[in-house]
């Protein structure tokens, strides 16, 4: 390949994600970590004069782990020889992946414990077991064990199926074949047989089976790329570097003859940190050659090799690997509706107990009254509906299906199907900013150099100035055009000086970054970087004449129409102003201009450099190498060297302003949600000015709303004064920075959160991921309300998992937030439909379904109670066998379950009038008030059916079972029809088919139904009368209520 004119940069700084896991401008969570967690920072390892820069080590996002490796001897640091014996290799954990929850021995005990931990299931188990005691036996045992066994078998089947799928996935991973280098040649072994100390050959697009040290690659430079989206959710490729000594060997087979050993620190969860050494062993009297190893030299398990072929040395296997240690199993979220239903179940038990005691008391506690008490408890056990949880779980599945198949919110995924009702009860929405409210689609809009500035309209002038800097201004510069550009005026400076300054900052921006050009399958060049604003700056540099065409661990190539080289050595650095302001030379414009850009909503980056002499560079290189190979406090030693030699008195080159565009529909969405009564918090790592600007431009802060800002509090007294002043204010928006917020969290937690939860909008800036999660938990704790968190990056995972409802956006920062969330969407605006429509339907439908299932159990128990009271308080079952089982299944289940298709308003009405959502958050659809209303309805209808059956059929008393049961079934079908707001064809079908099944079953159940009797006109008209008496009054009440006191949604529709 013929190289175009380029600038070759020898031995340029190696880079990888431990140095590039950041946003260069206004990086999320950067400042708080700088201010409060300085020890989490490392500096780049500059082995060349160009572009070493500050990098942050980002910790693994997984906040919990089910693996603890520090409690075993195997979790200690290790030194493994290239010629390790089999005995030594076998001391380390096997390389097995096991995600199963159960095994053959533990499956039944654990599942039974989980099921009978639920009050309803435990109650029915005790009732069923009581049937083995002769005095308590009522009817057939199958009628009690049948429903319970059905529920348990369905649940066990689901658990077994899910665990079987986990087993198959584990088996598939454990059986994948890998090539291992041995003295007897290359062997194919399954992943589960890989051991510490093995040499593994990894091909392109192959999953890494264990934690490895990269020894060699097919690239002469010793570099390769990996994809880490299955480990940390990030979509960008990461660069990895081979051990220099091994890369220089003449062949792969030479590795088998190397007499060396690798030291690795103890296993830990942090995927962005590693401390190790490679030691080449010589004769006994020669000091070993030691090369420092860090995360750049690692290939973590479950990452994928994206380029070339690599050979790795296994250092961790099985439970010691980073991937396994970061496998967290967040606690299952339990919805508020489920908690309310559990409480109602306990109330229903008390109702059952009181009803039994009442009948015993009315009978004067005669005879073996305690036996009768238990028999009544068993008779009335249907009051607590065992099928309630099954119906609700099936309903949740329907809601999840409807959400994922909504064409207006495409690619939405329900990852937690147990809490769709929570979407309808959200009071607080906590949102990230970058990538959530904004697109994470960056464009460089401004470049400021103190005495001159360029904006989007005058950027083309910069390429002309570059030509001038290279001595070509004669034919390329247009003075007339320049004179019209007010932003390029320089007082007291020559044009040559201006061009030189522009050249300096453009070169700095073209060199100081972590971007790598990659040729994809279509032979097109794309840029890979850890942050989109890095790519935006490189693309801008390309537009003005400096194109990045090649990069490896040793050099970068820039294509330019100029051919000019220099032997000068420069250290370049760029970063947030809060960091850079302390290490650049004195100036009087940096803070002001950064503030101005932030107020325009731009993400700022400060660019600086330092010229080094040959002696200074050599001194730095020597001292930094000593710090690199240190095994104790390595980061602190590296930081000390960089701070002492490089990071002081830097020459300030300028400030860039990058625009992050708002997501589509953000303004409308925030306005609708605010009108729906949601209190919205924006939690971001950006500076106050930028966050405030975005909050205003996105309409998060409404017009004319007062903004109160709290920042840079330095004492508890100052925090107390601010808090006191806030308590005297009315409705306002609070903007607070992370440092001040932490003071309140540590000292005035209750007072601050009590005030903050009442505000309509809060903007918290410079927040760390930990602070985001802490705020979420505090709001949940103090407000007792439902909290929804939405974000798109790995730094939002903790917040999402801490929320009642976590929503992840699939964005440019990767899929980590999406994978950790309960619901995954592709853009912020989908939140409107998700909450206002699907949340509404899920909550309203489940509430109605739960109450109707409870009513179904209560009414049959009331009929039993009236029957027993009339006939001498005898604890004898009125309905037995197939009738009692069929009542809650084939005779009523389909119509009752069809309520999950009901809707009280159209979707356009729900979205047009978000105020309807406010009623849902009050929890009125399922409350003690509605519960007792249904209790009274059940008492009335059960009593009416039983009493009227006896009154009208006094001459045919032998048929009391068929009479009352038929009226009961018809009553339930009519009650379902009464509750439906919008008919669906499946609802009509379920009613008709269920009625047909009941009529047909009467023919085949002669024990309970006398066919000659039920075909008479007398039977028919009297059943109709009984049914009318039990249900018609409720229709009249419903009509009058809708006529004279309609609910708000009826007024709109």
Please supply descriptive tags for the structure shown above.
1053 residues; alpha+beta; 5 domains; 6-stranded antiparallel β-sheet; disordered N terminus
Question: What is the structure about, briefly put?
Answer:
This protein has 1053 residues and is α+β, with helices and mostly antiparallel strands.
Envelope shape: elongated
Termini Cα gap = 71 Å
Task: Please state the average pLDDT score.
Answer: 82
CATH architecture of the largest domain: Up-down Bundle
Q: What is the CATH domain class of the largest domain?
A: Mainly Alpha
InterPro entries: ATPase_P-typ_cyto_dom_N, ATPase_P-typ_P_site, ATPase_P-typ_TM_dom_sf, ATPase_P-typ_transduc_dom_A_sf, ATPase_P-type_domA, HAD-like_sf, HAD_sf, P-type_ATPase_IV
Domain P-type ATPase A: 180-322
Region (Disordered): 19-76
Keywords: ATP-binding, Lipid transport, Magnesium, Membrane, Metal-binding, Nucleotide-binding, Translocase, Transmembrane, Transmembrane helix, Transport
